[in-house]
Design a protein that fits this description.
Layout: E1 26-28, E2 49-51, H1 57-81, E3 91-97, H2 102-113, E4 118-125, H3 131-138, E5 143-145, H4 158-167, E6 172-175, H5 184-189, E7 194-198, H6 213-222, E8 226-227, E9 230-233, E10 243-246, E11 249-250, H7 257-280, E12 284-286, E13 292-294
GO molecular function, one term: phosphoribosylglycinamide formyltransferase activity
Family: Belongs to the GART family.
EC number: 2.1.2.2
């Protein structure tokens, strides 16, 4: 009996296919989710790879089975590892300011860029004419006055503030240069959900009266070689809540308070955006001893 000649060709992950008689060559495309069948004749300028001989019907059936198995694995991988952005729930944020609100602006701009998956639902301020409040109004963000002031009939009490934030469906509260002590009613209503940023490396140079330029003047006068912003969860006292994140800024030999403040503020903007993104992505976890940590977005086994 005449011996049969089998030619075998292996390309990438395609199966090994027995071929009997050489015939006129043609092109086939790679297997892909967009292809209607396992083999498809295409124009040469669109070819993904080339075979010299046609494949048998038996081989085509094998390829179809292989393709189905691969597609099944791909679907499982995608559904398990990549979240459809259309199904994610955006977090609602309330931001508290008393001044220009530069951190508030940096977070809002990050939201507009898409790097923070949240919405600023409302701004709270004790100074309705401050720069932060004006920026909020210019961007159609509601403004609430707090605390209660006799000359401002539309200002709210602590309990009314909690009710208002619930009405706006606020998930997290970010203090960004807010100079009033947050009432205990709010702390109890939003446990582990209120963050503050302070312009020194807490627990140093913090507490009642330590805000603004006084912090930087005191840092320089102390001889400290390093400063920088701290983001911490708040409690019922000034600057004593659990520390979440810090950035280090060197204190130079001839620094003025203004120069140091400018460098610290630059780090504040970067750090608060990073923390706001982690907050909205639910990447903040609590260690057993009560220390909050931020899970790394690229490597969930790393924390900072």
């Amino acid at each position: 009996m005449e011996a049969q000649i089998f030619l075998f060709q292996v390309y990438s992950n395609s199966i090994i296919t027995p071929i009997q008689k050489p015939k006129k060559p043609y092109f086939i495309s790679l297997l892909s989710s967009s292809s209607p069948s396992s083999s498809q004749i295409v124009k040469p300028n669109r070819v993904s790879f080339k075979t010299l001989y046609p494949i048998s019907s038996q081989s085509e059936s094998s390829i179809n089975r292989l393709r189905c198995r691969n597609r099944s694995r791909e679907v499982k991988a995608v559904s398990g590892d990549i979240e459809d952005p259309r199904t994610r729930v955006r977090k609602n944020l309330a931001v508290f300011v008393s001044g220009g609100g530069s951190n508030f602006r940096s977070i809002h701009e990050a939201i507009l860029r898409g790097s923070v998956h949240g919405e600023i639902a409302v701004l709270v301020t004790n100074k309705p004419g401050c720069g932060g409040a004006e920026y909020a109004r210019d961007n159609n963000i509601p403004v609430i006055l707090f605390p209660k002031m006799k000359e401002k009939p539309d200002s709210l009490s602590a309990n009314d503030l909690v009710t208002a934030l619930r009405r706006y469906k606020v998930d997290f509260i970010l203090l960004a240069g807010y100079l009033k002590l947050v009432p205990i009613e709010l702390v109890q209503a939003y446990p582990r959900s209120i963050l503050n940023i302070h312009p020194s490396l807490l627990p140093a140079f913090g507490g009642k009266g330590f805000y603004g330029m006084k912090v930087h003047q005191t840092v320089i006068a102390s001889g400290a070689r390093y400063s920088g912003p701290t983001i911490h969860f708040i409690d019922e006292h000034y600057d004593t809540g659990r520390i979440l994140a810090q950035r280090v800024v060197p204190v130079l030999a001839n620094d003025t308070a203004d120069e140091l403040a400018a460098r610290v503020l630059q780090k504040e903007h970067q750090l608060y955006v990073e923390v706001a993104a982690a907050l909205c992505e639910e990447r903040i976890v609590w260690r057993e001893d009560g220390v909050p940590l931020i899970r790394n977005k690229e490597n969930p086994n790393d924390y900072s």
